[in-house]
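Assess this one:

_____
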Amino acid sequence: MTMTMGIIGILVSALLPSTLAASEADVPAAQYNKHLTCAVYYRMVAGSFKRQGNGILAAPALNRMNLMITRTKPLGEALGNTEADYLNDWSDTLGVMTDQMNRNYDNIRQLKTRHQKRCKALSD
């Protein structure tokens, strides 16, 4: 048992630095994806409010969307993304979220359950 634990300890210590280095390299990409997801999420929320005739309630969501966009674009540029890449990523994310709510704005709760807390924390 002790020998097994020793071997596991050696393996973990040998792998840990490379794992940390890989995760550090992914930080800009992860931040880019988080901010882009939240920008699209806020756009979907605003669209839902507008569809329900509550356009005035859409304004805060649109403001948060714009904030996320202003944070996302520099992150994308740092990754070497072009405007076309950004628009493709937006479109892909929009498609995923549309599928998550079964292509029905009445199901916006599906998106809120998945993204609301994380996006609020990211935009505060």
